[in-house]
Specification:
- With 177 residues, the chain is α+β, with helices and mostly antiparallel strands.
- The chain folds into 2 domains: 3-45, no CATH class; 65-171, Phosphorylase Kinase, domain 1.
- It has 4 helices and 9 strands, in the order αββαβββαββββα.
- The protein has helices at residues 3-26, 65-74, 114-121, 160-171; strands at residues 29-34, 40-45, 79-81, 97-101, 104-110, 124-125, 130-131, 143-148, 151-156.
- Strands 3-4-5-9-8 form a 5-stranded antiparallel β-sheet, covered by helices on one side.
- A hairpin with a 2-residue loop joins strand 4 and strand 5 (104-110).
- The longest helix is centred in the N-terminal third of the chain and has 24 residues, at 3-26.
Amino acid sequence: MKEFPACLILASAVLAACTQSSSESAGTASSSATTPNGVAAARPVAAATAAPATGGCPRTGKWALCSVENRLVQSGFVVRRVNGEAPRRAGFSVTPAVYTLGRSRLEVFIYPSESALASDVAKMDTVSAAPRGAKNPWPFFSPTFVHSANLAAVFLTDNATQAERLMLALTAGAPQP
């Protein structure tokens, strides 16, 4: 029983030594959380500034591709951006960014504002993710249509669990400023 406080003190000292030097050079702060067994664990937290850090994501309250990618990785997806020119999609006034998530395909449409997205969504059949009256343009699978703030996404998968995970990740809200 006497060894537990000593181990806790040692773990805290090592953790403090590791996080002090890296947090200043990386432009991020560190916070610690105590786990159920009482050991502190560090996790990086983005700096609380309006301007992005080098390689960071803008903190504007709107979706950006980097914030979508971060959210998907945090949700456990393996995200790979598809190289090449993305196809224009009927009903969407912006060109998508295309990703593969395992064997599934995700097309992400980032709009300049929520009102621009709302204008497009008002003219769409969200079940087929296409303009009203048009046939389903998506190959292979029925699309899962998701929209949140200034983001619309079409997820093509045959895995209902993955579709639900994606919906939860993106409808949790845009990153806060």
